[in-house]
Design goal:
The structure is a single chain. By secondary structure, the protein is an all-beta fold. The protein has strands at about 1-5, 10-15, 25-30, 35-40, 45-50, 60, 70-75, 80-85, 90-95, 100-105, 115-120, 125-130. The chain has a four-stranded antiparallel beta sheet with strand order 3-4-5-6, with no helix packed on it. Strands 7-8-9-10 form a four-stranded antiparallel beta sheet, with no helix packed on it. A hairpin with a 5-residue loop joins β7 and β8 (about 80-85).
């Protein structure tokens, strides 16, 4: 994963996730201080952006069947995260405890495409799209 500052040319830093075998899904929290990375093995790693090279300050595994995380985002107040998966579901997670709150299913997703998912601005709704239109 690489980070850039739009005000400065060149890459600011690189984080590697050895052993995951998959590309991480990444997102900033609403304050821009915490970076969340969803990696292989159902793991979510949280980094303090100022000290990201020192490693994550929290790591938790999302319970349930193995998932390939396709997207990850925070809600408006940073208390919830939402991960889209390649298994046809999106999952809401408590951003502090790492516990799964709700799984959103309904897409056919026979091709196993990564599902992007996001919260509405007020955090009351979740949206995702898939090959099933």
């Amino acid at each position: 994963m690489r980070t850039w500052d739009l005000r400065v040319p060149g890459c600011l830093g690189v984080l590697r996730f050895p052993g995951s075998g998959r590309r991480p899904a990444v997102s900033f929290d609403p304050e821009g201080l915490v970076l969340a990375a969803g990696v292989g093995g159902n793991q979510v790693k949280l980094f303090d952006l100022r000290f990201a090279s020192k490693g994550p300050f929290a790591t938790f595994s999302v319970p349930g069947e193995p998932r390939d995380f396709a997207s990850i985002c925070f809600n408006f107040d940073g208390k919830l995260m939402l991960v889209g998966t390649a298994q046809g579901a999106a999952v809401s997670i408590d951003a502090f405890k790492g516990t799964e709150l709700q799984t959103f299913r309904g897409h056919a997703n026979k091709m196993g495409l990564p599902l992007e998912a996001c919260f509405s601005a007020d955090g009351a709704q979740v949206m995702s799209g898939s090959e099933d239109k």
